[in-house]
Specification:
Elements lengths: L19 E6 L3 E2 L16 E6 L4 E4 L11 E6 L8 E4 L5 E5 L9 E9 L6 E7 L8 H4 L4 E4 L2 E4 L3 E4 L3 E2 L8 E4 L4 E5 L2 H4 L4 E6 L5 E5 L23 E4 L4 E6 L4 E4 L11 E5 L7 E2 L2 H4 L3 E7 L4 E5 L3 E11 L4 E5 L12 E2 L4 E8 L3 E3 L23 E2 L6 E3 L6 E5 L2 E7 L2 E4 L9
Parallel strand pairs: 1-3, 2-4, 3-5, 4-6, 12-14, 13-15, 14-16, 15-17, 21-23, 22-24, 23-25, 24-26
Antiparallel strand pairs: 5-8, 6-7, 8-9, 10-11, 16-19, 17-18, 19-20, 25-28, 26-27, 28-29, 30-31, 31-32, 32-33, 33-34
């Protein structure tokens, strides 16, 4: 039988330093120095490998007054998925170091813990990271812009910031996503010479108007997407417009700006929108989502003149008036308050279709052309209330009641016609003068 009693003195022999200890802990556990000859299995061995089966557990060091300074142990967390990090603390529970589990499950996180002052039971302890399987032990201090410490690892991070007014991007804005929710506005990029190569930012236009992104660096650093970056004349533009609901990422090589993932949703994707006018009141503010539809049809019966306000964005529209009634359907670009047209408007007669262009302020009839350039022009018959050929007053002009008839309408009322039979004026001759 093995004993630890000195046969000469009858005293208990102090055991030699325990080289290795494996612990599975489910509650906070206090270690004991081997020199105390304790029968406890929780020995502060040279190497202690620990598996924690619950969260928030502490592994408490023995009293510091029982050993000399320089006493040290190596503590490893050999837990993996399903197990937990734990704290190594002094004898009263003050944390010396937190040891997380390994994210890979194959490499453990290991710390060398040593005593530097033994004048109190708690003592003063220091630690050195060794054999760290991942950077998780210091992930929180390593995480900068675009990175975030999640458990034991560094992960990509894209903070979202909402802006509605003019904003100049800063060096500290690296890797942020800026969500624009204002009307027409400007975001200014920083100088590439200051932020350096690799700096990037994402910008999304969730607002109601065009967002212009501007580069203002010195020299050629004010160029975005240069056509010849290695040449003496690199080309490119100093601004990029981000349309409503679109986005882009801007990055720099330290000299120029480059875009990627620049969304242009309306280049090839044309959708049709049908809007009944029965329940609409004037002015009607069209939403940005509706305005993404290039082809728009308005149906139903107008009970009053209707002004449709489109968002402040560059767009081409095919607008078709299929309404009935004696009232007008007019389109314009919305002012900031959404209460009136910002610039030039376009009125579309009933049963007519126009291709119109918005520059963010005015609407233009894309079908206009110089008279000398038109060799043949065919119009629909129209009616007295909605003449086919009109002037500024959309109800005054010419229409046709059928083949061989040219009719005249004044303010929506037929006043005469011309046919092979002659001129007929239903309103008579004013003051007896022909």
């Amino acid at each position: 039988m093995t004993t630890y009693t000195n046969p000469y003195t009858g005293q208990t022999i102090s055991p030699s330093q325990v080289a290795y200890q494996s612990l599975t802990i489910s509650t906070s556990t206090t270690l004991n120095w081997p020199i105390n000859g304790t029968t406890s299995s929780n020995v502060a061995a040279n190497i202690v490998e620990v598996t924690a089966t619950a969260s928030g557990l502490n592994l408490l060091m023995p009293p510091a007054t029982q050993v000399s300074v320089g006493q040290a142990i190596i503590v490893r967390n050999i837990g993996n998925s399903g197990q937990y990090a734990f704290n190594v603390t002094d004898n009263s529970g003050t944390v010396i170091v937190n040891i997380p589990i390994s994210s890979s499950g194959s490499n453990s996180n290991t710390y060398y813990i040593y005593l530097t002052n033994n004048s109190t039971i708690n003592g003063t302890w220091s630690s050195v990271a060794m054999g760290i399987g991942t950077s998780s032990a210091t992930a929180g201090t390593l995480a900068g812009n675009g990175l975030k410490a999640v458990n034991n690892t560094l992960n990509e991070n894209t903070p979202v910031r909402n802006i509605a007014g003019a904003y100049t991007l800063l060096n500290s804005d690296r890797a942020n996503l800026f969500s624009w929710y204002g009307g027409v506005g400007t975001v200014t990029l920083p100088d590439p010479n200051i932020v350096g190569a690799g700096w990037f930012v994402a910008i999304k236009n969730n607002g109601t108007g065009i967002l212009t992104v501007t580069a203002v660096g010195s020299g050629y650093s004010n160029l975005i997407d240069p056509s010849n970056p290695g040449g003496g004349s690199p080309g490119g533009s100093s601004t990029v417009q981000i349309q409503i609901a679109n986005s882009s990422i801007f990055t720099t090589d330290g000299t120029y700006w480059y875009t990627y993932a620049l969304a242009q949703t309306n280049v090839f994707n044309y959708t049709q929108l049908i809007i009944p006018v029965t329940s609409l009141t004037s002015p009607y503010q069209m939403s940005a989502a509706f305005a993404k539809s290039v082809i728009q049809e308005f149906t139903g019966t107008l009970s009053a003149n209707l002004l449709v306000l489109l968002p402040q964005t560059v767009q081409i529209y095919s607008l078709r008036n299929l309404t009935s009634g004696s009232y007008t359907l007019t389109f314009g670009v919305s002012n900031t308050a959404g209460s009136a047209a910002l610039g030039t408007t376009v009125t579309i007669p009933s049963n007519q279709t126009l291709i119109v262009i918005s520059d963010g302020t005015d609407l233009y009839n894309a079908n206009s052309a110089a008279v000398a350039g038109i060799t043949s022009l065919q119009l629909s018959n129209g009616s007295a209330g909605a003449p086919t050929l009109t002037f500024a007053d959309a109800t005054t002009g010419y229409y046709s009641t059928g083949s061989g008839n040219l009719n005249i309408s004044i303010s929506g009322t037929s006043v005469g016609s011309i046919s092979s039979a002659g001129l007929l004026l239903t309103v008579g001759i004013q003051s007896g003068t022909f």
